[in-house]
Design goal:
It contains 17 helices and twelve strands. The chain has 511 residues and is of the alpha+beta class. The longest helix has 32 residues. One of its GO terms (molecular function) is ent-kaurene oxidase activity.
């Protein structure tokens, strides 16, 4: 889910934004103090400011779809904290682990509000999910609900068998594909995606549903169409640019293409999720209770139908996205680094022998743990932490940060910071075995956030990814399809691999 939440996407909309604002001379007074060059310090103890232009600020410097890389380059010049202007907004960008933790933990009381793009405001029904809601009574209530019913330690035990089943299914599919055509390169993503979506549906709704009748569509849609409508389309729509995000005083100007795209995507998502929920409510009405998020929410009887619909969708997309991203990158790196793959296999042999790796074995596999966290560091599931809003004056790294400032934590910049990491561009799991970190610390790289807004699904993501990686290496020797060694491009500003991972598998002959 966190992949879809990165909402600073100043690419194709930049030119439109500048053009729309260019003829409005009066608006200049609203940006950068009446038209002086952005970057000039207005306060004695302000962070360094990246020089920009009147009205548009630094938007013209963020034309590519990789703003996290631009932010990291600027950090080499301006330091770990600096400010930029994105149109009318002042944004503090953090590029070091120390400053980021200060913001997320020590200064949480001043920086706990979410700042959403227009697209995300619509897609989340104005912050009606755990990940985007402002910290307050609603957030605390729904986060408690998701932890108690699905993601907390005790509820995770109830879904243990389901997690084991989906990983077994993945291995079974791999074995079948290899047997059918030993020389063919397998599409890893397709196999992993299908089983992970099965898990998300069972957890969220109580059933793996192969199809559903959607009244608004006038037909039944397949499981693949459910996935496309509730996961893929939503993730891509979250990247849609509305230039009015950067110039809110021009909100009165229509942006029809954007509005149509977002409203249509949201309506289709809502129709499908509502159809899935209604089908399960019939089961619940018959007294057929199951362990699921929906069953729990219905029993609470404290939420509106819209809130239940949006929260169930959040549970579906969260389980179906970031764990796939991390595991796919981990297997890519293990394929590229054969000696590290063999080291992991040897550790598994030493600890488990011929016994199948289970979640119970994870604490006894330090190199596996290191592989997982190094993948999170080098390929964080989301490069930019969803923007926050400073709602009261505070300080960060000794600088004054006024209320009204937006805050972006650049995880990519933090994890590529040479002051914090040796050879950060290299994928080296060994860095997590030098005693610097506790093995049980899930927040080494802040990929799961930190503090009171830490990712609710951190435990589940760790269990699934680590167990899957171990099982995959235990059963097969992995190598990349020829020519894919340097295919590490990502989709726009996300860290999703642009090219699905294709691999050759050789069974290890384990009994």
């Amino acid at each position: 889910m966190e992949t879809m939440l990165a909402s600073l996407v100043p690419a194709s909309g930049t030119a439109a934004a500048a053009a729309a604002a260019g003829g409005l001379v009066a608006a200049a007074a609203l940006v950068a103090g009446g038209g002086r060059l952005v970057g000039q310090k207005d306060r004695l103890n302000a962070p360094p400011a990246v020089p920009g232009l009147p009205i548009i600020g630094n938007l013209h410097q963020l034309k590519e779809r990789k703003p996290h890389q631009t932010f990291a380059r600027w950090a080499q010049v301006y330091g770990p904290i600096y400010t930029i202007r994105t149109g009318a907004s002042s944004v503090a960008v953090l590029n070091s682990t120390e400053v980021a933790k200060e913001a997320m933990v020590a200064k949480f009381s001043s920086i706990s509000t979410r700042k959403l793009s227009n697209a995300l405001s619509v897609l989340t029904c104005d912050k009606k999910i755990v990940a985007t809601s402002d910290y307050g009574d609603f957030h605390k209530m729904v986060k408690r609900y998701v932890m108690v019913s699905m993601l907390g330690a005790s509820s995770q035990k109830q879904f243990r068998g389901i997690r084991d089943m989906v990983i077994d299914n993945m291995l079974s599919t791999f074995h079948t594909l290899v047997t059918d055509d030993p020389k063919a390169a397998l599409n890893f993503r397709e196999v992993f995606k299908n089983e992970l979506f099965r898990l998300s549906l069972i957890q969220a709704l109580g059933e793996d549903m192969s199809s559903v009748y959607v009244e608004e569509f006038g037909k039944s849609i397949s499981k693949e169409e459910i996935y496309q409508t509730t996961v893929v389309d939503l993730m891509m729509c979250a990247l849609a640019v509305d230039w009015r995000d950067f110039f809110p005083y021009l909100r009165w100007i229509p942006n029809r293409n954007f509005e149509t795209k977002v409203s249509t995507t949201e309506a289709r998502r809502t129709a499908v999720i509502r159809a899935l929920i209604n089908q399960q409510k019939k089961r619940i009405a018959r007294g057929e209770a199951r362990v699921s998020y929906l069953d729990f929410l219905v029993a609470q009887n404290t939420l509106t139908d819209e809130q239940v619909t949006t929260l169930v969708w959040e549970a579906v997309i969260e389980a179906a996205d970031t764990t796939l991203v991390t595991t796919e990158w981990a297997m890519y790196e293990l394929c590229k680094n054969q000696e590290k793959q063999e080291r992991l296999f040897e550790e598994i042999q030493e600890v488990c022998g011929d016994e199948t790796v289970t979640e119970d074995d994870l604490p006894r596999l330090p190199y596996l743990n290191a592989v997982f966290h190094e993948t999170l560091r080098r390929h964080p599931p989301v490069s930019l932490v969803p923007p926050r809003f400073v709602h009261e004056n505070t300080t960060l790294a000794g600088y004054d940060i006024p209320a009204g400032t937006e805050l972006i934590i650049n995880l990519y910049g933090c994890n590529m910071n040479k002051n914090d990491w040796d050879e950060p561009e290299e994928w080296k799991p060994e860095r997590f075995l030098d005693g610097r970190f506790e093995q049980a610390d899930m927040f080494k790289t802040m990929a799961f956030g930190a503090g009171r807004r830490a990712c609710a699904g951190a435990t589940q993501a760790t269990n699934i990814a680590c167990t899957a990686i171990a099982r995959f290496v235990q059963d097969f020797a992995w190598r990349l399809k020829e020519g894919d060694e340097d295919k590490d491009d990502t989709i726009q500003l996300t860290t999703n691999r642009l090219y699905p991972l294709h691999v050759y598998l050789t069974p290890r002959g384990r009994k």
